[in-house]
Amino acid sequence: MKSKIIFISLLFLFTSTFLLTIPKSRQIDVLLITIDTLRADYLSCYDNTKIKTPHIDRLADRGLLFKKAFAQNVVTLPSHINILTGTYPFYHGVRDNAGFRLSEESLLISEVLKEEGYRTAAFIGAFPLDDRFGMNQGFDIYDDFYGDTSHPNDLFFVERPAEKVLDVALRWIKDQGDNPWFCWIHVFDPHVPYNPPQDFKKKYPSDLYGGEVAYVDEEIGKLFLYLEKRQNRDFPLTVFTSDHGESLGEHGELTHGVFAYNSTLHIPLIIFQPKLFPKSEVIKEIVRHIDIAPTILDVTGIKIPEVMQGRSLLPLVKKPSRWKEEDCYFESLSPNLNRNWAPLYGLIRGNRKFISLPIPELFDLEKDFKEERNLAASDKKNAKKLKTALDNILKKNRQSLSVRKPIDQETINKLRTLGYIAGSEVSPKKKSFSAEDDPKNLIVLDSKMQEGTMAFQAGDVQKAAKAFEDILEERPNYSVIYEKLSYIYRENGELEKAIKLLEKAVEFELDDPSLMSKLAIYYQEAGKLKKAKTILESLVRSFPYDVETLNFLGVTYWKLGSLEQAIEIFQKAITLDKGYARLYSNLGSVHLSAKEYLKAEKNFNAALFYDQNLASAYNGMGVIRGHENKLSEAAQNWKKAVELEKTQYDALYNLCVVLTKMNQFKEALKYIEQFISSAPPQQYGSDIKKMKELRSRLKTVLKKND
Predict the structure, then answer these.
(1) Domains, the chain, ordered by start
(2) pLDDT tens digits for 95-122?
(3) Do residues 27 and 179 touch, judged by C-beta distance below 8 A?
(4) pTM of the full structure
C-alpha cells in the first residue's frame, strides 16, 4: 500500500475489536450505492407514506437499517470523500464542491480493496464527482463520461440519468467473472432541477422531487433483480446511502448547501448481505458517513487503516449493549467560501445537536427532530458544553491534506499594477462575523438565488438577471452571484457587460480564484488575449491542478500562436482529467494548426470516444477530411458539427464551400442562408459578404438550369 501522510487527532482514532473474518478464498463483492440529494424520510422504509420505494424498502426489510445516520457535509464532493476515506473534512481538506481537489496523500477505500485483489470501478452520475477532483484514486475504471463539461459559469450541473449510469455499471459487473469486485454507483437524479421521466411526473405531479426518488428506486430495482438471480455468486455486501438530503423549503432553504438541519444532514443508511446479516434489524444509535469505509473493510476481513477516523459498525450490530456512541461532527462552509457568510460548524452528542453560528442553536433531537425549537438560550449549560467540545475539535484539527488557497499576493500585486484591479476600492473578505452574517438572516437571499437559477433554466433570462441584480443591490459582496449574473449577460450576448461586472467583483473578492478565472475566460472570448494570459498564468501558479484554468490557458496560448506551450498545457490537463473530451478536441485543434494531421485525428477520435456529441471534434475531423480531399466525409462531419451546435460558424462556412465544390447547390444554399442570418457580423463580416456573393452566383446557376 502506498505511503500516506497521516495527521490524526487521538480524539478520532478508532479500531474495531469485533472482526467478522471472511477467508480470502471467499472474498465477497462490495457494492456501494450513493444517491445524490436523497432525504431519508422520502423512502417508505423511513416512514414515508406518500412515495413508494419498494426495491429499496425490500433491501431494508432484509438488512440493517440505521435510523439515525448523519452526513458530515451537505454538498456532494466533500460528503462523498468522507464516505470513501472514512475521514472528516478537516482532515482530507475538501470543504466545498468548487476550488478543491483531493490530495493524492488521502487514502480511499478503493485503494485498500484494490491492493487486496479486488477489481474496482466507479460509475458517476454528474460533474461534482468528476475525476478532475481526485476521486478516481484506486479505481480501475472511473466512468464519469456524462458529456461535455466545458461551459463556464453554467447554472446547472452536467449529468446523466440513473438508467444510463446503472446500465454501464451492470455491464461492468457482468464482465467480472469470478473476480471479487468493488463497485461504487453514484446516481444524481434527485438533485435540482427535478425532472423525472414522464411516467413519474404523472404519478407524482405535485411532488417532482418525489418522482425523482421513485424513478431511482425503480432503476435500482433492476440491478438488485440481476444480483439476486445470478448463478454461483453471493449477493454483494451492499451499502446504500445518500450524500445529503434536500431542504424542500424547510427553515426557508429551497435546496441544500447552506444549513445543516436534519432535512439535509440526516441520510439513509442500509447495509445488506443475507448470509453475513441473516437477521434484519433497525438500529437507532447515531452513526456517521465516516463509519461506512471502516465497516466495509471490517466485514471483508481487511485491516482498517489507522488513518480512518470513523469506526466499524460491526460491534454495534453484534453487541449493541457494549456500544458507546461517538460525537458526530458536521459543517457547512459553502456559504462562507462563496458568499462571505458566517461559517457553520456543529456537533451531535447523544440527543443534543449544537450549531455554532453568530446566533447559536441547540436542539433536542429526541423531542424535536425537525429542529423547530432552539434551546441555546434556555439550556445554556448544554450549549456551552457542546460548543467547548466543538471548539476543541477544530483547534486540534487545523491541519489538512488539501486546502483551497487564496490567490497569492504576488499575483494580486501584478494584476493591480496592470490595471485589472482597482487597489483603492478593494474590500477584503471578512474574518469575523456578526448576526448580520448568520445564514438564518440571509437565507432569503439564497431563496432568491435559487429562484433566479430556476428562472434561467426555464428560459426566462430577464427574470433571472433581475433576481441576481436585486441580490447584489442588497449584498454587494455576495461573490457567487457575480458568477451567475455574468454568465447570464454572456449568454444574452452582452459579453462586455459580463466583463465589467466581474471586474467590479474582483474589487471585493481578491482571494476568490473562481471570479478571476471567469474574468480571464471572458477576456479570452472578447479577444483580449494578453489580459486573459496574465490572469490564467497567475492562477495556474497558485492552482496547478485546476483543469478548467489549464484548459483555458491552453486555448489562450493557441490563439496567441504559442502552439508548443498550448500542447504542453493540454497534455498536463489530460493527466488530471482523462475523460474530459474538450481537452482532446482542443489539443487536436492545436495539432491541426501545426499541420500535424495524424496527431490531430488521434485526439479528435479520443474526444468523440468520451463525448459523441462534441461539435468541435466533428469540425476538426471535417478539416482533416477536407485536407485529404475526401469532400463527402468532410461535409458529413461539418453537418454533424452544425447540427449539434448552431454556433459552429467555421464548420458552417466550410460546409457551404464544400457543398458548392460538390455541385450540391440547393443544399449549399440552405446552409449559406443559415450562415448569413446567424454568424455574428463583428467576427465574420468579410465571410458573410463572401457568402452573399456565393448565394447570388448559385441562384443564377440554378435559375439557368431550370
Answers:
(1) 10-147+157-319 (3.40.720.10)
(2) 998 778 899 999 999 999 999 999 999 9
(3) no
(4) 0.81
